[in-house]
Amino acid sequence: MKRVMFLGIVVLVLCLTAQPLWATYQTVVPWSVFENAVSDYSGGVFSPTSYSRAVSDGGTVYAEVRGSSPTQSWFVKVTDAGTTSMSASVISNYIGGLTTGASLGVSGSNLMIASSVTDDVYTINTSGGDLSVYVSKAQLLDQVGGDGFTTGYSSVDPTGEMVAYETIVDQLVRTNGPGVVEVFLSNGAMVAAMGDAKLQGQLAFDGSGNLFVGNTTTDSIWKYDGAALTEAITMEQLIGVTGDTKFGVNAHIYNPADGLIYLQDLTSRHILSYDPDDPAGTIKIVMTKEQLENGPLGTATLASFSLFGSDIAATGYNKGSMDYVAIPEPATLCLLGLGGLSLLRRRR
Q1: Per-residue confidence (pLDDT) for residue 18, from 0 to 100
Q2: How deeply is 13 buried, as exposed, middle or buried, from its count of CB atoms within 10 A (0-12, 13-18, 19+)?
Q3: In sequence order, what are the residues at sequence separation of 6 or more whose Cβ sits closer than 8 angstroms to the Cβ of residue 68?
Q4: What pLDDT band is residue 151 in, cutting at 50, 70 and 90?
């Protein structure tokens, strides 16, 4: 009994401090599931070699996967992901490479895609069908200027619209219904606050609609509340946590399950989290590069974050490290640990 009580105290202390000891992750959808779906769809003719992006909606995972040719692209839907009932099917394919390298988000019953080939924003129903142009490059040029919706630096905001970084004018633009686009954050406003308009990494919107984004020059994280752009976490504060000499934002996402924003640092490859209400005061490492490399992916370089239930999720970039994985928040793991101790106590 005393040993169980002692272990309980240790678990509780570790839970409260939320150190990387608790960080772990597991495969939700093996890469072979996507390979088999494309192979079945094409009668064995094609096999995907990499992701464009992967996202999830509840227990369903959607991914755009690419073939050996940059003109081959398939949208795969995986239902009951992470369970023994998991099944996958291709809901649409494009051998014209319309969306190669696209960003991907879930907006209601649609997937929203920003193309790196046509520079348009598309939607596709999650049940399947053809892509529909939501906002075209021509409409972007006509309404706000620029040269396309830059992929990788985009996100579906809390209202279900696409916010994307446009790199000719260096501005953030936002769709506002089919055929309509507007300036979300102007080049002038970014230059006035940050000294330039060079953004980096995913765009992370918190539960209140505030935007958090990285800057490549300041190596820091900035917050935009719709009125003002302010530095939320300085480079000095960030490298004070990582112990490195530089910092860069890679994957970046808000998790409503615990109210925290998670990101991967491009330099150290650690995963960190912070509370959007107190970013500088709460920034911490939740998973180290070494822990990432020791897990199923075997790599510390992640593609963009998404959400899988209450967990953040990601994929790797390279062949052999492209499972879709979920990374449980430390609090979830703590509850599992305390639950296990409870069962141990009952058995005694």
Answers
A1: 45
A2: exposed
A3: 47, 49
A4: low
Spans of all domains in the chain: 1-24+330-348, 186-287
Positive or negative, the CA dihedral 203, 206, 210, 213 is: negative
Written as one string, the DSSP assignment of 233-280 is E-HHHHHHHH-SS---EEEEEEETTTTEEEEEETTT--EEEE-TTSHH
pTM of the model: 0.85
| Contact present, 315 and 303 (Cβ < 8 Å) | yes
Using CB atoms within 10 A of its CB, is residue 193 exposed (0-12), middle (13-18) or buried (19+)? middle
Fold that domain 186-287 belongs to in CATH: Neuraminidase (2.120.10)
What is the amino acid identity at position 179?
G
| Residues 96-120 pLDDT 10s | 555 544 567 787 888 888 877 778 8
* Packing angle, helices 330-347 and 2-17, rounded to 10: 170
Dig out the tokens for 106 from the structure: 């879930």
Q: How confident is the model at residue 328 (pLDDT cuts 50, 70, 90)?
A: confident
Encoding tokens for residue 332?
A: 């979830």
DSSP H helical ranges for the chain:
2-17, 31-41, 137-143, 187-194, 235-242, 279-282, 289-293, 330-347
